[in-house]
Amino acid sequence: MSSFSSKIGVLLAAAGSAVGLGSIWKFPYVVGENGGGAFIILYVVFSLIFGLPLVMNDFMIGRLSGKSAYGVFRTLSGTNHWQWLSWLTMVTVTLLTSFYFVVTGWCFYYLTEAAMNTFAGMDAEGLTNFFTAFGHKPLTMIGYAFVAIVLTAAVLWFDVNKGIERLSKILMPLLFLMLIVMASHMVFLDGGTTGLKFLFEPNFSKLTPKVILEAVGLSFFTLSIGLGILITYGGYMPKEEKETLHSKEKNIVNTSIQMIALVIFISLLAGMIVFPAVFAYGFSPAEGPQLTFVTLPAVFQNMFCPTLTSVSFFALMCVAAITSTISLMEVMVAFVREASEDTKRPLNRHKSVIIVGVIQLITNSLCILSMTGSVRWLTVMDKNLFDTANNLTTDILIPIGAMGTSIFTGWFIPKARYQSSPMISFLYLLTLRWIVPVVIFIIFLESMNVFQFTIITK
Questions:
Q1: Taking a C-beta distance cutoff of 8 angstroms, is the pair 360, 142 a contact?
Q2: What three-state secondary structure class fits 135?
Q3: What does the DSSP 8-state code read for residue 238?
Q4: What is the pTM for the complete model shown?
Q5: Helix (H) or strand (E) run with residue 115 in it
Q6: Residue 415 burial (CB < 10 Å; 0-12/13-18/19+)?
Q7: Residues 157-175, mean pLDDT to the nearest whole number
């Protein structure tokens, strides 16, 4: 089976999958919609309380089984009873990438337009019209999504250590450097301190059950929980010649902590780019998904060297997006390869990449056609496929996948597989068996209006 060649390769690839558009695109606008500082606190707390054991768990079961999301549950349980969780993971990743590549295509389109100085002299209204006009160009959107799919497939064409690992070692340090440079510039804008205050000063009156649900969902989304990515990468972890149970567990714990810390830090850096700029020029932080593609380009037009700033920012977005699409598509490639082995006609990596690439082109094209209204019947309950896939994966499927995996590990993996392991301690099993499933279930009930609970903020 393919594997990474070093621990740093695992960390950077895992962090790249988690950072991506989740931290650079989605994190700022979700924070903006949910009031800033108080939401940040919830996000960090949930990332530590739920995120850490779940990240460790994904790495661990991948490492124990040596399988991807397709074979992990069957291998560890010895039965097919949990295979539904493998297929749920595949459905979740397919739906997620059906809109993720669309947004990645937007990033490449905006990078091209920024480089041609198209945004020069445009105000917020002009950029809104530009964004709207782009949304009515399905062939252009499909073309840029296709570019993103091809670039991702080109990386996955090679073995894990020659493709994913090698590129992660280049892109992640580059991403980190670009974030620091841009954040350092933005925080010194006149009025930028107001944006930092919004980001870091909590206003607990903003907390509602919906905000809590959003914080849990964003935590799972940005940490790649419930997507099979960390399970697959756990199976790719390098094996040492004299590896002991203690050293194996230590590597998993250290990698999990470092990854979460890196994701939180990068997410906050993204916020330090967005909110000082937004507040410095009098825009609203609660602009939703268009914050990145309308509000920020309008801000950049008022800054020194607007073209350079715009190009730098959208180059940053493209780098972040590709680090995630690589990991998401690799889950599907590994899934197809392992599933093909059951048919007695196993597929190699190249054929699997081609199959997944075709699936991506079809699903993304359908998503784009639904968004642009080119095919009006492509809607679900009056929502286009883009919004449906976004909401369904973030609010429902990812938490269900996380809950199912935690229950599986906590209750159904034969004890002989981990009875000598100090990592599977009382608190760890308590979290997997009870805390995570119960909390997610309560939030689901509240989100479906089965019952309501009130948060006291005074």
A1: no
A2: coil
A3: P
A4: 0.88
A5: helix 83-115
A6: exposed
A7: 87
CA atoms within 13 A on the CB side of 122: 25
What are the φ/ψ torsions at residue 454 (nearest 5 degrees)? -110, 140
Q: Decide if 297 contacts 314 (C-beta within 8 A).
A: no
Reported as half-sphere exposure (CB side, CA atoms, 13 A), residue 46 has a value of: 24
SS3 call for 297: helix
The SS3 of residue 374 is: coil
Q: Which amino acid is at 27?
A: F
- How crowded is residue 287: how many other Cβ atoms within 10 Å of its Cβ? 20
Q: Residue 186 is inside which H or E element, if any?
A: helix 164-186
Asked whether the CA dihedral 229, 231, 236, 242 is positive or negative, the reply is positive
Alpha carbon distance 1, 379 (integer Å) = 40
Closest listed residue to residue 336, CA positions, set 94, 93, 70, 92 = 70
Handedness of CA 401, 402, 407, 413 (dihedral sign): positive
Asked whether 120 and 298 are in contact (CB, 8 A), the reply is: no
Q: What is the pLDDT of residues 93-129, one digit of tens each?
A: 999 999 889 989 999 999 999 999 998 888 878 888 8
Local confidence band at 27 (pLDDT 50, 70, 90 cut-offs)? confident
Q: Using CA atoms, how far apart are residues 43 and 45, in angstroms rounded to an integer?
A: 6
Least confident of 19-23, 45-49, 139-143, 317-321: 19-23
CB–CB of 290/128 below 8 Å? yes
**CA contacts within 13 A on the Cβ side of 339:** 15
The enclosing H or E element of 383 equals: strand 383-384
